[in-house]
Design brief:
single chain, 24% strand, Aminopeptidase, 9-stranded mixed sheet, alpha+beta, disordered N terminus, 9 strands, globular
Amino acid sequence: RQAALPHPLASPETRSGVPGLPPSAEAMKINQDTVLRGKKVTLVPYTAAHVPRYHEWMQSEELQRLTASEPLSLEQEYKMQRSWRDDADKCTFIVLDSERWPGQAEENSMIGDVNLFLTNTEDPTVGEIEIMIAEPSCRGRGFGKEATLLMMAYGVRKLGITKFEAKIGQKNEASICMFKKLHFKEVAVNSIFQEVTLRLDVSDQVRQWLLEQTNHVEEKSYAELKQPAGVLDT
């Protein structure tokens, strides 16, 4: 999670049923059959079949440091995947390399994940976004930027998001720089947690820009694309 929100098990309570969430977000299963295909990356729902590779990533001390995460057992990681699927305040996609998938197995095409948290009960239109490009060979090549844009456009179109926030470790300069290039502004610094909060209000102008940046994206059915049938059961 390169944008440095904590690994979800850092706060394992589920928040489903949070009052005030938009109707479309009552169950984040909204994206369980959604594939967003861009030029560099393809976003697919996070399923149980992705967990072993994800678990492998999170053994990395570097990723633990960047994401303020504690290492989990494989069993805990499976439990977390189920919460990502079922909780009303989380929306997550696994990031695949578009050159590899479809074609190669998904676990061999995985390069990271991108997430939205809807945890502001006073304002359900705020989405806290995070991006992690876990594969070192895929960093600095525009994968994270496109994955973030795809998720932002999805949040605006499907979840009613009008404000985005990103909380990033102060030392994670690459991630801070990327979000600033996406027009986020730094609004706070937390010296205790050593993180920076960046924000983007989705004005009409920003919305138009976001849709233009993602007008190449194809939305498809995951059930129809995944291969072979039945392998990636949730």
